[in-house]
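Q: Please design a sequence for this.
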């Protein structure tokens, strides 16, 4: 019978002891692995590998280390002893364990608060009593920027870097527009510290820079270049920006849009004869019983939102009109209000309008025809109409070829005929189009009675491009970002979008080289998103841009040739230098 002391050696329980007894049986008792392995729960092959490793490293320890030998567990303790005097010295300065840990980390000798507390207890230090706030060390935290104040604008000679170097490309345009006099002609609010001109420039700077509204504007509040663009010592905080847009009287926006519309033409941004019109729903996520539900195309559903009417110049790719003061009952007549605005500004109606079927009514289409305005729109398809179209014989259709379209479906079938509609006394041209890649036929309505079918379809085929360009203005100029921390009134946001869109078009047309048709996002990535060094001297302000592959295009376009006086920067000359 095996006694309990014998069982400890013959039936080991720990892995180390089992390994020891198995190796002892092989090397001391001279048992072969095939005989010793079953005794200790090993396979013969495993025991052979263990014996081979032991022959090459016979110093393998199977026993607990002595108390004198340093072990892995003692290594933190030895490091602790090295830092003991430093910890004691810091505690004598009345620092807490957290203060001591931060100080050690600053000295590149990090030690956790737990280990600091252990050292202090071993040295006989008691816990510190709870201290008053004035007894604690000054906590680290974000730097508090100064309040925005135009009187504190610093134009003393100095040099500083800025992440917003590309914004200075737009300053010559604003100076040539005489932007300060434009603002003076409006009734925009302001304060003694932040006048109306500086407030609008601060908002416009954030609109021009980036493809998402800067809810993190507080991260850039110390950027001197961003503040210099607006003529302030620092950029206003987000609370001011939000409150300022709420203080603007809605009656100011039509005046501001009219003045901007007139001034921008002086810089060579002409108006085209063909315009694209569309409604866009800006989603609203708050609680307001007066907000109506509208259709949101990108989500294919109706939801609460603010309806904005947008007009885009098809020839020059610029947003030229916007209005968000639209109720659902006023939606069909907004096109007429836009035409009154356009004629008042230009002296004539546009030659052509292109829009969706939901924009207005047939009665208003007839009014457009009486004004001499050509239009192209879609007709809504009912189930009865679709049955009638599918019942038409193949002989009634003809196939045409669409020129100059890089698309897959270039040879659609059409059915071209004259029709009459309710509330439209005259005849209309309806063109039914199939084989365009859509499941159902497309129905075009127009008063272009003699225009060739390929030309007409090609013009409306740009509807996809129209929607993409309007989406570019909505996405890049972040009109939908109403939930950001820098929340603005929709009308204020729309007006800033119109201004930013025009400035980007001016930039594109001056650069040339095929950039006239580029989207604002591309222009931003290629030219505006640039860091720079700003040097303020007595005779002017020099903005030296970083070296970039497309800087030669800006030099060739003349951005570096003629310095411009900037009125809100004490009339200093602005020099643009490209590395």
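A: Design:
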């Amino acid at each position: 019978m095996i006694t309990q002391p014998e069982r400890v050696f013959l039936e080991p329980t720990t892995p180390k002891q089992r390994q020891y007894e198995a190796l002892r049986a092989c090397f001391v008792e001279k048992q072969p692995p095939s005989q010793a392995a079953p005794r200790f729960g090993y396979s013969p092959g495993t025991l052979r590998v263990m014996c081979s490793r032991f022959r090459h490293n016979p110093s393998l320890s199977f026993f607990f280390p002595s108390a004198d030998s340093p072990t892995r567990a003692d290594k933190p303790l030895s490091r602790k002893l090295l830092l003991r005097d430093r910890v004691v010295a810091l505690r004598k300065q009345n620092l807490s364990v957290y203060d001591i840990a931060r100080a050690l980390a600053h000295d590149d000798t990090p030690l956790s608060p737990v280990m600091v507390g252990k050292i202090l207890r071993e040295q006989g230090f008691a816990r510190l009593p709870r201290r008053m706030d004035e007894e604690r060390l000054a906590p680290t935290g974000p730097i508090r920027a100064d309040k925005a104040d135009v009187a504190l604008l610093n134009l003393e000679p100095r040099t500083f870097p800025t992440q917003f170097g590309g914004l200075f490309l737009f300053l010559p345009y604003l100076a040539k527009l005489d932007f300060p006099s434009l603002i003076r002609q409006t009734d925009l609010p302001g304060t003694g510290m932040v006048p109306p001109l500086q407030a609008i420039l601060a908002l416009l700077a954030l609109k021009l820079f980036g493809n998402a509204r800067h809810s993190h504007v507080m991260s850039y509040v110390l950027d001197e270049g961003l503040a210099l663009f607006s003529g302030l010592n620092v950029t206003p905080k987000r609370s001011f920006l939000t409150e300022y847009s709420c203080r603007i009287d809605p009656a100011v926006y039509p005046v501001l849009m009219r003045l901007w519309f007139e001034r921008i033409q002086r810089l060579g941004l002409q108006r085209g004869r063909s315009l694209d019109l569309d409604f866009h729903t800006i989603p609203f996520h708050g609680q307001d019983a007066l907000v109506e539900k509208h259709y949101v195309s990108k989500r294919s559903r109706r939801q609460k939102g603010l309806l904005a009417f947008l007009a885009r110049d098809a020839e020059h790719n610029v947003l030229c009109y916007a209005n968000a003061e639209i109720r659902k009952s006023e939606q069909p007549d907004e096109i007429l209000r836009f035409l009154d605005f356009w004629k008042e500004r230009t002296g004539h109606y546009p030659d052509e309008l292109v829009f969706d079927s939901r924009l207005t009514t047939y009665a208003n289409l007839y009014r457009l025809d009486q004004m001499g305005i050509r239009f192209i729109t879609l007709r809504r398809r009912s189930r009865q109409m679709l049955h009638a179209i599918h019942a038409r014989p193949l002989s009634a259709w003809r196939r045409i070829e669409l020129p100059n379209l890089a698309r897959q479906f270039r040879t659609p079938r059409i059915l071209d005929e004259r029709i009459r509609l309710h509330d439209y006394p005259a005849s209309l041209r309806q063109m039914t189009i199939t084989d365009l890649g859509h499941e159902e036929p497309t129905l075009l309505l127009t008063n272009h009675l003699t225009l060739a079918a390929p030309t007409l379809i090609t013009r409306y085929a740009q509807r996809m491009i129209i929607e993409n360009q309007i989406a570019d203005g909505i996405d890049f100029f972040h009109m939908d970002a109403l939930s950001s921390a820098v929340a603005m009134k929709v009308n204020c946001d729309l007006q800033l979008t119109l201004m930013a869109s025009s400035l980007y078009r001016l930039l594109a047309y001056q650069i040339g080289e095929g950039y006239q048709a580029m989207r604002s996002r591309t222009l931003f990535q290629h030219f505006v998103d640039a860091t720079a060094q700003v040097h303020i001297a007595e005779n002017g302000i020099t903005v030296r841009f970083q070296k970039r592959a497309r800087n030669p295009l800006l030099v060739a376009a003349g951005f570096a040739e003629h310095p411009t006086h900037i009125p809100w920067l004490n009339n200093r000359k602005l020099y643009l230098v490209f590395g």
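Q: Thanks. Anything notable?
A: The CA atoms of residues 165 and 285 lie 35 Å apart. The first strand starts at residue 158 and ends at 162.
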